[in-house]
Amino acid sequence: MILPEKKQTDIVLSVQGLGVQYATAQGPVHAVSDVSFDVYKNEVFGIAGESGCGKSTLIRSLMRLLPDSSTMTASGLQYKGRDLLTMDDETFRKQVQWQEISLVPQSAMNSFNPVYRVGDQVIESMLAHRKMGKKEAAERAAELFDVVGLETGLLRSYPHEFSGGMRQRAMIAMSLSLDPGLIVMDEPTTGLDVLVQERILRRIREIRAEMESAIVLITHDIAVIAEMSDRIGIMYGGQMVEQATAIDLFESPYHPYTLGLNNAFPSIKDIGGDLISIPGSPPTLIGPLNYCPFYERCPFSIDECAHQVPMPKTVGNEHEIRCFRSGDAVDLRRLAKEKTTWRS
Amino acid sequence: MFVNKIGSAMRIIQRGFGEHYGIINANGLSRWGFRIIMVFVLVAIFAPWIAPNDPWEMMYDVNGKFASLRSPSWEFPAGTTHLGYDLFSQLVLATRTTLIIGFVSGLVSIVVGANVGLIAGYYGGKVDEVCMRLTDILYGMPFLPFIIVLIALFGRKLEFVILAIALIIWRTSARVIRAQTIAIKQRQFITAAKARGCSDFRIIYQHILPNVLPLLLLYAAFNIAWSIITEASVSFLGFGDGETVSWGGMLYELWLSGKTRVAWWWFATPSVCIILLVTSLVFVSRAYEEVANPRLRKR
After folding, report:
1. For chain B, which terminus, N or C, has the lower number of CB atoms within 10 Å?
2. How many CB atoms neighbour CB A209 within 10 A?
3. How far is Cα A258 from Cα B40, in angstroms, rounded to an integer?
4. Which of B196, B209, B213, B217 has the most A C-beta neighbours within 10 Å, making it the best mutation to test the interface with A?
5. So what's the ipTM on this one?
6. Chain B within 8 Å of A342 (Cβ-Cβ)?
């Protein structure tokens, strides 16, 4: 998809230097550190990364759903020009949450209260924020069910009468209820079979074409993100290690982790070729973060990687990476294709 | 015929409380328990019309003889006391007192207990600490002596008896509801409700409360049963409201009269009423226990 020229005024969500620490007995865990990104109007921003890379913590911090044991720091956080950092919880809850930023939570399947009808919960989510008649809300709920491809009669069903995919779609319907400017979808297709997954993704694409909302899509499924996103951020060890348009990210990746991910992902052009996995496991992130989180697993690491955090560097149009070896990208890309490189 | 009437009455209730009727009706014991409770409730409502005599009127039999310590007969279905009071009338009127005390203090205690449990469980931290230490202190109180002291302080009035019982009995429900609240607040749909921007009030009362409801009703039934027993004990010890008749109070009068070994009907009738009502309540609560704890269900 070719995007029109981006304007500063089109920024829906702007995150600068966001960090989240969890206090544990072993010391603070840097679940997210120094993440910056912008989300523009009417685009899908994908965030990909393996389990434990901080994706969910990142969006929890945006939605103010972090547990008490965590602390969030950021140098800037704006939604459509409004400063979210200084906004108190009550104002945030009443004016921003759900009305402006809605969330399709991880495992949306369990996100309905089992004792209420699904329709009533969709209606409740509207009435809680906006002064509108119950009838009006019910009509809107029926409309939304139509949008996500569920029969309106199902509004009167209880959550346990729904299949996983239906609940997921109902959750998406709910997230659309107040025409929010930003919809955050945390793994919207996890745990669903590919057919249902495809149907849901198609719906999301259709919805996006109809509405102005920006979508932040979080998943560990590279295929989903490649298909859906305009721009992609790759997260590793709590940092956003590479950020680029979807095309750039797959055609000219820079970061060794992205290179490794591309290898681990089956290509339709290269049938029969072995997949190459990245050896090792992600860092624990306990203690001071003064190293590149990927250096232990990185086949291209140099001395600097172990003692210093690489700072974000712009390498192209909207392409930003965190790697000391960004200058050697051409060589790295060639070496990364070879299986022997990744053997530890 | 009487049973049929109860059946049709239950069908009316069924319309209003369909789901609860289903829960109670699914279990034979609780079905009978519920019927017995309904009989007591009807007796309590129509007590002044059912009772043939004034509870504190000296009775004379058809022959004009003073009816002192008569065993049950057609004339005096539950016998009479040594002062010639009609025990049947006393029993009927006492049903009203007992049910008022039982239900009011049972309900007050469950409302207090549920709120303390929900708030302590949901907020956690200091709020939890304060609420739960308070219940711990109440657990440290000896049950009956504490109530007797309260009544001695405030006076032997029906309201104070109710208040004293309610004040102490909520402790168990608070603990149980708190535990259940903590379990439920970690479920995904509560996080989803938070993400939706629901207020704490809405989350507690609209999302958590309905999920603890079966447990709540179970403890409501327990609390009512306990209140009735406590009221009987307190009255038996002579701390009941002297102005009204109650089952425990009747036993107290018997004790005072010193006729325990002679007048078997005098202690049998109130005792059977207490046992019947409390057992019925426990049977009904049993049905809710099966909802709250499906492992008890028969397969």
Report:
1. C
2. 8
3. 75
4. B196
5. 0.78
6. no
A53 touches chain B (CB under 8 A): no
pLDDT tens digits, residue range B6-34?
666 556 555 556 667 777 777 788 888 88
Scanning B155-263, the segments in alpha helix (DSSP H) are: 158-185, 188-195, 200-202, 209-236, 247-257
CA torsion, ordered A107, A109, A112, A116, to nearest 10 deg: -170
- Minimum-distance CB partner of A103 among B195, B198, B210: B195
Contacts of A93 in chain B (CB under 8 A): 197, 199
Are A105 and B195 inside 8 Å of each other by CB?
A: yes
Query: What CATH code is assigned to A9-107+181-342?
Result: 3.40.50.300
Interchain proximity A129–B192, CB inside 8 Å:
no
If you search the block for the tokens 């249902």, which residue do you land on? A196
Report whether A321 contacts A241 (CB < 8 A). Answer: yes
pLDDT above 70: percentage of residues in chain B: 92
What are the sequence ranges of the domains in chain A?
A: 9-107+181-342
Element holding A333 (H helix, E strand): helix A329-336
A104 touches chain B (CB under 8 A): no
Structural domains of chain B, with CATH? 2-296 (1.10.3720.10)
Tens digit of each residue's pLDDT (9 = 90 or more) over B217-266: 888 888 999 998 988 888 888 888 877 888 888 888 888 888 878 888 88
What is the pTM (predicted TM-score) of this model?
0.79
Nearest CA in chain B to A66: B191
Residues 6+ away with beta carbon under 8 Å from B10 = B21, B34, B35, B38
User: What integer is the mean pLDDT of A69-79?
Assistant: 89
User: How far B99 CA sits from the closest chain A CA (Å)?
Assistant: 32
Phi, psi of B3 (to 5 degrees): -65, -40
Q: Rounded CA gap, B8 and A337, in Å? A: 81
Q: Residue window 191-230, chain B: list those with CB within 8 Å of chain A.
A: 191-199, 202, 206-207, 210-211, 213
Interface membership of B187 toward A (CB under 8 Å): yes
